């Protein structure tokens, strides 16, 4: 057990405060007594495995951070973590391949929780064309999208797209409590381009309007696919982002 792991009560209190809940609020949500919850937070009571998981569920703690809570309570983690090339991940790999290939010729990519690109389909080439080599060496979808050496100079509605992406990343940082996500957010916010939260408020979704290196305008709508019942951290934190044509001319150009 890592000696640097904070006591369980301190971790629990930080998650409760992050969710802006009082001890009574959390006690009611988790169906435990406020007195017992107070004893757990102060270290006067030791929580069982079932209690740790019940409190984590009430606080909507992500899977990776649930493991941290369990370890802090002196218990074994609930979720394993395998590499994508592990034999036990064969069904996940097959599922990702199937989804990526099904979206061709439209761009589609698989990313982890930190938006590192794990895999792309052939259709993604139109989005990677012209991106600086240093961004492709260890590709991160948000850096590629918003860095001045990436797609940013060719995104016609950059301020609007930045507002959408940064807002999503802010929510992820708040929900996860991840220092890595917070660091990525600070980096992305430092890129030039501004934010426009008012543009096209009457629309259906926020489009990505990308000008290709050949000068053609492509308009995309993005969708996200995740594994809904994952028990492994790699699978739980993996998402597949597809960019579908927002108009007939984009669909025709990609085909």
From TrEMBL:
CDD domains: HTH_XRE (cd00093). One of its GO terms (molecular function) is DNA binding. It comes from the Bacteria. It comes from Mycobacterium adipatum. Residues 12-66 form the HTH cro/C1-type domain. SUPFAM superfamilies: lambda repressor-like DNA-binding domains. This is Transcriptional regulator. It holds the Pfam family HTH_31.
């Amino acid at each position: 057990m890592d000696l640097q792991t904070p006591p369980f009560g301190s971790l629990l209190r930080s998650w409760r405060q992050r969710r802006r809940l009082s001890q009574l609020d959390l006690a009611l949500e988790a169906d435990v007594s406020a007195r017992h919850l107070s004893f757990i937070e102060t270290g006067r009571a030791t929580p069982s495995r079932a209690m740790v998981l019940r409190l984590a569920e009430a606080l909507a703690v992500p899977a990776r951070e649930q493991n941290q809570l369990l370890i802090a309570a002196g218990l074994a983690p609930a979720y394993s973590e395998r590499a994508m090339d592990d034999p036990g991940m064969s069904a996940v790999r097959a599922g990702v391949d199937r989804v990526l290939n099904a979206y061709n010729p439209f761009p589609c990519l698989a990313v982890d929780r930190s938006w590192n690109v794990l895999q792309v389909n052939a259709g993604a080439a139109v989005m990677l064309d012209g991106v600086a080599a240093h961004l492709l060496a260890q590709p991160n979808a948000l850096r590629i999208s918003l860095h001045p050496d990436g797609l940013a100079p060719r995104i016609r509605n950059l301020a609007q797209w930045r507002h959408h992406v940064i807002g999503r990343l802010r929510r992820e940082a708040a929900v996860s409590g991840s220092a890595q996500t917070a660091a990525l957010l600070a980096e992305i916010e430092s890129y030039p381009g501004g934010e426009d939260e008012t543009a096209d408020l009457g629309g259906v979704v926020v489009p990505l309007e990308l000008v290709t290196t050949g000068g053609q305008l492509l308009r995309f709508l993005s969708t996200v696919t995740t594994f809904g019942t994952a028990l492994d951290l790699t699978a739980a934190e993996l998402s597949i982002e597809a960019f579908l044509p927002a108009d007939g001319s984009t669909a025709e150009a990609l085909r």
